[in-house]
Write a structure and sequence with these properties.
5-stranded parallel beta sheet; Rossmann fold; alpha/beta; 126 residues
């Protein structure tokens, strides 16, 4: 199916999402920081990048900004936002436009919803 980079500073969440998506035949590379995510993007090709926005140091905004500058590697992008619903409503459209984000999902995340969004993105690019 898809090769997915999953970036989130919550190791438990990384493990849960990774295990779930692997069961659906996706290849998952999981990292716990934006810096590690950028290194992975620079060295591998991904179909989809899923990143948390709020992380210490290099955060999801930095990852998205870096992806926008990388013209050779243009994966689909999903944001996992730990922010509250007000933040999500106010900034969803701006984030999507500024960073060419395909989907914004708020936490707590439904694994089924995430899987469905990934499959929709895969199907939209074929």
């Amino acid at each position: 199916m898809a090769k997915i980079l999953l970036i989130d500073n919550d190791e438990n969440l990384l493990e849960v999402i990774s295990s779930y998506l692997i069961a659906y035949n996706h290849t998952i590379v999981g990292v716990t920081s934006g810096k590690q995510g950028i290194i992975q993007i620079a060295t591998q090709n991904f179909d989809i990048v899923i990143t948390e926005l709020m992380m210490k140091g290099v955060d999801g905004f930095d990852v998205l900004s870096w992806l926008c500058q990388d013209e050779l590697n243009n994966p689909k992008k999903i944001i996992l936002s730990g922010c509250n619903e007000v933040f999500y409503k106010d900034y969803n459209r701006n984030l999507c436009e500024k960073y060419n984000v395909d989907k914004v999902l708020t936490k707590p995340i439904s694994l089924k919803s995430l899987r469905d969004e990934i499959h929709a993105l895969i199907n939209s690019s074929t």
